[in-house]
């Protein structure tokens, strides 16, 4: 079975979305033969679900949009004892927790998902002190982390009058440098996790083909690329943008696209380096979704986009170092 079929077969997460958008109860939309379907779950998957009470997932940027639906679907999967929402705005974070809890309480009859705890921890991506404080809170309360979904990001609107050069540093500081610093901070906790996984929410904007220079494409996609080298390339891109020479040197024309390309490259580095620690690292493109970030121009509902992150978190025997798009593995190297 491919990733999409595995996901749809043993995890009814696709049913989480109508609950929150249409205010249905799960008992109203589950097929009558659902209990029979559950009995068909492979023993290994059932055993995995039975261990949910000890597993902890953190989703960043989870107070709205795609991040909210990722957190909701993970909570409803029954595969986690706790799902933590890392959010910058405390009020919105607590409101998102209450919303997810209301959906969990509506599950009829009660299931393992009903007992999933949902909580909020403050996080400002790109603020290293906030990263440290989050890590310390997780260390003190749980001593480990099983899943990290790096969803938080920022993007300037297309109509924003801020000059391209001035958009560069804040975009890279949050989307790439912030994601790298937070992940590196949390890796010691993930190394203690059970079937630990990292999923980085990237974008189709991070396609490798945006880089005009064949030499830069080769360097950024090299299987031997190190994090130190990647950071130097990103720094060079920023310098070239500020100097107005980025086009002549073969870079792409989008700060957001470069930040997401770097996140995908970082995913491949972590997948290689953390394999010895048993951590599976993947990234995904949720698609062009109807969210605040796209000014609600995207045709794909955010609950559908969220599944591209949920699949590599929940599927059995997940591979590592891959780019998930449209509910299956996509080849980033030829994108």
What does this structure look like?
The protein is built from 13 helices and eight strands. The chain has helices at residues 3-10, 16-22, 26-29, 34-39, 43-50, 65-77, 90-105, 128-141, 164-190, 214-221, 227-243, 255-273, 302-314; strands at 56-60, 82-87, 117-122, 147-150, 197-201, 280-285, 323-325, 328-330. The chain has an eight-stranded mixed sheet, with helices on both faces. α9 (164-190) packs parallel to α12. The radius of gyration is 20 Å and the shape is globular. Residues 1-35 and 37-41 have low confidence and may be disordered.
Main features:
globular
Strand content: 5-15%
What is the averaged pLDDT score? 85
The class by helix and strand makeup works out as: alpha/beta
The share of residues in helices is 40-55%
Low-confidence stretches: 1-35, 37-41
Gross morphology: globular
Number of strands: 8
Radius of gyration of CA atoms, rounded to a whole number: 20 Å
Could you give the order of the helices and strands? HHHHHEHEHEHEHEHHHEHEE
Q: Terminal Cα separation, in Å?
A: 24 Å
Largest sheet: 8 strands, mixed
Number of helices: 13
| Lateral arrangement of strands in the main beta sheet | 3-2-1-4-5-6-7-8
List the SSEs and their pairings:
Elements: H1 3-10, H2 16-22, H3 26-29, H4 34-39, H5 43-50, E1 56-60, H6 65-77, E2 82-87, H7 90-105, E3 117-122, H8 128-141, E4 147-150, H9 164-190, E5 197-201, H10 214-221, H11 227-243, H12 255-273, E6 280-285, H13 302-314, E7 323-325, E8 328-330
Parallel strand pairs: 1-2, 1-4, 2-3, 4-5, 5-6, 6-7
Antiparallel strand pairs: 7-8
């Amino acid at each position: 079975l491919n990733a999409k079929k595995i996901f749809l077969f043993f995890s009814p997460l696709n049913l989480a979305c109508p609950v929150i958008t249409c205010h249905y109860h799960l008992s109203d939309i589950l097929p009558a033969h659902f209990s029979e379907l559950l009995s068909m779950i492979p023993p290994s998957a059932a055993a995995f679900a039975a261990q949910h009470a000890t597993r902890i997932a953190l989703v960043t940027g989870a107070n709205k949009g795609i991040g909210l639906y990722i957190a909701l679907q993970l909570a409803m999967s029954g595969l986690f004892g706790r799902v933590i929402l890392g959010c910058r705005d405390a009020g919105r974070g607590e409101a998102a927790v209450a919303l997810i809890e209301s959906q969990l309480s509506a599950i009829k009859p009660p299931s393992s998902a009903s007992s999933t705890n949902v909580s909020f921890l403050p996080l400002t991506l790109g603020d290293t002190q906030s990263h440290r404080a989050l890590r310390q809170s997780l260390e003190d309360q749980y001593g480990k982390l099983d899943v990290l979904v790096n969803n938080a990001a920022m993007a300037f609107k297309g109509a924003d009058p801020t000059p391209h050069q001035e958009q560069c540093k804040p975009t890279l500081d949050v989307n790439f440098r912030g994601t790298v610093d937070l992940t590196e901070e949390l890796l010691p906790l993930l190394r203690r996790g059970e079937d630990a996984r990292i999923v980085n929410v990237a974008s189709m904007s991070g396609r490798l083909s945006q880089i005009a220079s064949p030499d830069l494409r080769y360097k950024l996609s090299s299987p031997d690329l190190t994090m130190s080298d990647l950071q130097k390339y990103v720094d060079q891109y920023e310098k070239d943008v500020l100097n107005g020479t980025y086009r002549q040197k073969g870079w792409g024309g989008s700060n957001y696209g470069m930040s997401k390309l770097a996140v995908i490259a970082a995913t491949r580095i972590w997948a290689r380096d953390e394999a010895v620690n048993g951590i599976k690292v993947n990234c995904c493109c949720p698609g062009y979704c109807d969210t605040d970030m796209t000014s609600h121009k995207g045709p794909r509902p955010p609950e559908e986009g969220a599944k591209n992150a949920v699949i590599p978190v929940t599927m059995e025997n997940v591979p590592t170092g891959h780019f998930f798009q449209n509910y299956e593995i996509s080849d980033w190297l030829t994108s």
